[in-house]
Task: structure prediction
Amino acid sequence: MESMSIAITDTCNYLEIILMNDTIYDFVTSQVANRRRHRKFKNLKNKHRQAGDKGIFTSNIPCVKYMFQEY
Result:
């Protein structure tokens, strides 16, 4: 799994987070790898909303803030 920092809000009663697979970026610069990782990272709120609509998560709005960390 890819390591990521999150900030939990005070009003969070039920913690629901999305785990992302770790990908190995061989033969690319760290800038290209960060760009590809950030592209997946940007969609986390949308994926959380989709999981809430499908009934996987209890809420459509995440109560955590995902913080992107570059390589």
Notes: The chain is about 35% helix and 10% strand.
